[in-house]
Structure formats: C-alpha cells, structure tokens
Request: fold
Amino acid sequence: MARSRFREMADLFSHSAESRLATVAPLAQRLRPGTIDEFVGQAGVVGEGSALRRAIASDRVPSMIFFGTPGSGKTTLARIVAHTTQAHFEELSAVQVGVADVRRVLGEARDRLGANGQRTILFLDEIHRFNKGQQDALLPAVESGLVTLIGATTENPYFEVNSALLSRCQLFQLEPLTEEDMAAIIRRGEAALGVELAEDAREAAVHSAGGDARNALNILEAAVGAAGDGPVTPEHVRDAARKRPLLYDKGGDQHYDVISAFIKSMRGSDTDASIYYLAVMLEGGEDPRFVARRMVVFASEDVGNADPRALEVAVAAARAVEFVGMPECRINLSQAAAYLARAPKSNASYVAIASAMRDVRERGNLRPPPHLRDTSYAGAKRLGHGAGYVYPHDRPEEAAKQQYLPDELAGTRYYPEDAPEG
Reply:
C-alpha cells in the first residue's frame, strides 16, 4: 500500500513538473513546432508536394539523415515525425549513449515487432559522434528494416558517417534559414511574449541570429527582458546577442567550404568576397599561416606569369604573418588578398606542370637527347654526350631551334606560347 501511494505521489509530482516546464522553459523550446504546417523554412525539403512531406503525412518515413547548421530544424523535424507516427519512437543522443544502449533499443524493437507488429523509429542526434563500431552496430537493423533510423548531424555525413550506413539512408541537407524565415519566427516569438518590435529592432535580431531559429528566439527573449517595460531597441538586441554565431570549425566542413570560397573569390577577381571570407577564417580562429600558404600557392597557380609580382606579394605576406602575428597580420593578409584578387589571371604554369608530371608518371623519366647530356667527366664525349650542342649565347637563333625534350616527347607543348606574361 505504501509503495503504491509513493508511486502515485511520484506521478503527481512528475505531472506537475511537466506542466510548469511549459511556462519556465526557454522561448525557443516553448515555440518548437509540433506539426509540419507550423515548421518554418526548408521549403526545398518539406515544402508542399515534397517527398519528405508526403512520407511524414503517410507515416512511411524512410531511414534518413538530416545534415545542417545549428538551429536549421533537424531535431524539430525528427520530433514532428514523433508526433505524427504510429510507430514507436525512440530518441537517443550519440553524445550520451554507447553500443549497449543501441543494442537495447534494437532488442526492444525486435520484441515490439514480434509481439504486435509495431515499427520502431530511432532518432539519433549528433550521429557523427558515434565511432565506426557504434555505427556498424546499427547497420544490420537499418538494412533489414527492423528500425527506421533518423540521424541528425552538423557535420558533413560524407566525412563522418560510414558509407555503408549512409548508402541505406536518404540525405536531406538543411540550409541556414533565410532572413524572411527568421523574421517570421521572430514575429511568432513577439506574439508569444506579447510585444511588438519596431522594424529596426526586428532586423537587428534577424541579422544577429545567423540563420539559427533557436538563437533568434533566445536573443529576442533576452532583449525583451533587458528592455523591461520600455520598447525593445536595436541596442537591446545587440546587447542580448553579444557574440555573433560563427559557423566555422577549423577541423570540419566549414573549414573546407570557406577556404574554397576564398580561393574561388580571388580567382573570380571579387575583392570584397575575398576579404569577407578571409575575415570569416580569422574570426573563426583559423591559423593565419594556413591562409598565407594557400595564398602563396594561389599566386602561382592562378595568377602566374600574368603578374609575376603576385608571388612576391604573397610570400611577403607569409613572412609578415610569421614576423608580426595576429591580430596585426590580418592587415598584411588583407592587402595580399586584395592584390591577388585584382591581379590578371593565368593558370598556364599550373596546367604545364600537371601535364608534364602526368607524362612522367605514365612514361617514366625519359632520357634527354644526347646533345644535352652531361659532358663534365672523362669519357662522356666518347659516349656521344654533347655532340652537336649549340651554345645559346654564341648562336641564339640556332640554339632556339635545337631539340630539348626527349625524343619520345619531341614537339610536345606544356606551356602555351600565348600565355600572358607580366
């Protein structure tokens, strides 16, 4: 009797805690969409008529992985599935569980399917945190259909998820929310808080959130609190935002995407974009020496002899990075990036060495023609070395006509005659 009364009291307290949680939870949690119609953004993934929207509506979702930046809606979409499915829904965080927990869920899924035919959906947040062994434990169950896997990750799944598991899942990439989407979310937050922001304050909140819905609502809630009974101003918003969200990871996907955008912006002669991506890398904590090395390579690969001085500028910037260091060397890097972006472009040197090295790999290091071979040792002339060699300083016109490439490559052109020269 006492044990029964204890359980009743525990259930009562639990219910009371749940009801109070709805009022004390952060605004972002209170406004988390519960249906697909409430979900904002990602029209390409869950818009009207999309395959995923139809799958959710018909309760026939496939195994899938949501990949995107924080606050783009990965967990929310998974929980919308939880609210609409007739299947049993299990949610695990890869940060907190191991193989034993996965095997327990799989065992229960097998029992559930055998007992009453109920399917199981397993939502695995931060799936990239699972190592190869942990991911391998999921593979047979996903392959057989014992569970439907929904994974969520902020990391590129092609780098972090086993190819065998990835091949059995549909991949949906969620983009950062647009400014229009963010404004709609903030208006929803205003309505929940009983306030109405002026347009400039709302724009400040949109820009401060960095495409992250959760961050936008957190900023809004803090700004409203800071304003008290007065109107929310852009200053309140900026104070609430404090630190701008930086979607840059020196060891992850953003590292490669941003350096790629930096190089391609310089190659495309867009000075402003080049300097912007440079700023993203430096603000994100990227090693400025890495940036400088890429610029030295770019100076020869993409500018080349169209402006030979570009290499001097890039090397000087690299030396300045070593000599000065951050934060001052950002100025040296900015100067060099601007120069490289505005310089004329030629990839002739890059194409030439790539083509020549391909010939070396495929045909070996072919011997130079006899007249170019070394004559510095006794007996070389008896081997025919140097015979017929024309000394360019004595007879430049004849020397220019003699063969320099190996016989097998005679007439091959690696560096084009019409390549631009600075």
Q: What stands out?
A: The longest strand covers residues 147-153. The chain is about 55% helix and 5% strand.
